[in-house]
Amino acid sequence: MSTPLLSLRGLLKRFGETVALDRLDLDVPSGEFLALLGGSGSGKSTLLRMVAGFEAPDAGQVLFDGRDLAGVPPHARPLNMMFQSYALFPHLTVSGNVAYGLRREGVPRAERDRRVAGALAMVGLEGFDRRLPHRLSGGQRQRVALARALVKRPRLLLLDEPLGALDAGLRERTGFELRALQRETGAAFIMVTHDQGEALALADRVAVLEQGRLVQLGPPRAVYERPATRFVASFLGGANVLEGQPDGAGGLDCPTLGGTLRPAGPLPPATTACALRPERIALRPGASGTNTAAGIIEEVAFRGDDSLLLVRMPGGAVLRVGHAEEDGAPPPRGSTVQLAWEAAAVVPLLG
Ligand SMILES: Nc1ncnc2c1ncn2[C@@H]1O[C@H](COP(=O)(O)OP(=O)(O)OP(=O)(O)O)[C@@H](O)[C@H]1O
């Protein structure tokens, strides 16, 4: 195997009592778009800051091309970081902001101008070069920050919530543009986000952090369809997580559901929970047996292309059930409904 572009080995970081990163290992190959997902306080920003050199690990290593970056200051690291706040210099024009890093490096004027123009064209800001930041919209400022990060042609770009300040429509468009830029430049991107939809849509691989640990790493579809833990299951797409006991016949008896979940494959004897995605549960009048259950609709929330039903089960669980528009109007609140799902939709969880 070739050396990964970035390798994190046993990274440990404590702030007093808090363990922000708990001996984390992660390899990122050249040209990958990696999304770093996790709840508030899970260690995402600490990880980026450590790779960028703003924070030193208590133990472990950050390797770039196999070389240990310990002691290398941020400006001398072969990577770039785009901050959440954009942090543009207010007194410098757009091109002044983008040129700043190149000027510090002593890149000659003509080459600087050429590269700044190229970076501004890349982010669709031609003609804005003489503007000051306060005369730009939030989205435009963000593009300036992106141009500033890309102009140095880093092989690795770290992005902390790059789309955070944008409204929904602009966010989607800018997300696609970011993905296109990443392909065009061939740089590896590590993007921190709170937004699971964004991570699934843009990334080659998704890394899910929980309390400073990497709990799952894989392509978006794999992580979404086969979540490893309770946390990943509920964090990504709001899966139902059902607790129970193995029934000795390949199923998990779930008292809160008032039924048995049986996955398609074998159930490890230690399994105590399974995930079941809302969109994999169907209303099926007359269904009975394993992988079915009956409950009462408590809430119906229209979401555009589907409705989300909250269905109270006899044992007390409230299941989230997706009801597609093409299946017609959902039954009203208070209706008793029979639910069914395929064995393939039952995902045993490891933790
Ligand atoms: N400078 C610091 N001093 C003390 N504690 C810190 C410091 N920086 C981070 N922490 C703690 O370390 C943990 C991880 O923080 P971090 O900012 O990396 O999380 P995050 O996943 O980026 O969160 P968010 O999504 O809210 O930005 C948190 O418990 C946080 O309170």
CATH superfamily of the largest domain: P-loop containing nucleotide triphosphate hydrolases
Q: Which distinct ligands sit in these coordinates?
A: adenosine-5'-triphosphate
Main structural class: alpha+beta
Biggest pleated sheet: 6 strands, mixed
**Helix/strand order:** EEEHEEEHHHEHEHEEHHEEEEEEEEEEE
CATH architecture of the largest domain, please? Answer: 3-Layer(aba) Sandwich
What portion of residues belong to β-strands? Answer: 25-35%
Q: Unreliable stretches, pLDDT < 50, 5 or more residues?
A: none
Compute the average pLDDT: 92
Number of helices: 8
Label the overall shape. Answer: elongated
**How many domains?**
2
GO molecular function, one term: ATP binding
GO biological process, one term: putrescine transport
Domain ABC transporter: 6-236
Keywords: ATP-binding, Nucleotide-binding, Transport
Protein architecture, described:
- With 351 residues, the chain is of the alpha+beta class.
- It has two domains: 6-225, Rossmann fold, CATH 3.40.50; 240-348, Beta Barrel (OB fold (Dihydrolipoamide Acetyltransferase, E2P)).
- Helix content is 24%, strand content 32%.
- It has eight helices and 21 strands.
- It has helices at 44-52, 94-105, 109-122, 138-150, 168-185, 196-202, 220-225, 230-235; strands at residues 6-15, 18-28, 33-38, 59-64, 67-68, 80-82, 156-160, 188-193, 205-210, 213-218, 240-243, 245-246, 252-254, 259-261, 273-276, 282-283, 292-302, 306-312, 318-324, 336-340, 347-348.
- The strands form five sheets. Strands 6-7-8-3-9-10 form a six-stranded mixed beta sheet, sandwiched between helices. A five-stranded antiparallel beta sheet has the order 16-20-17-18-19, with no helix packed on it.
- A hairpin with a 5-residue loop joins strand 12 and strand 13 (252-254).
- Helix 2 packs across helix 3, helix 2 (94-105) packs parallel to helix 4 and helix 3 crosses helix 4 (138-150).
- It starts with 5 loop residues before the first strand and ends with a strand.
- Bound molecules: adenosine-5'-triphosphate.
- One of its GO terms (biological process) is putrescine transport.
- This is ABC transporter ATP-binding protein.
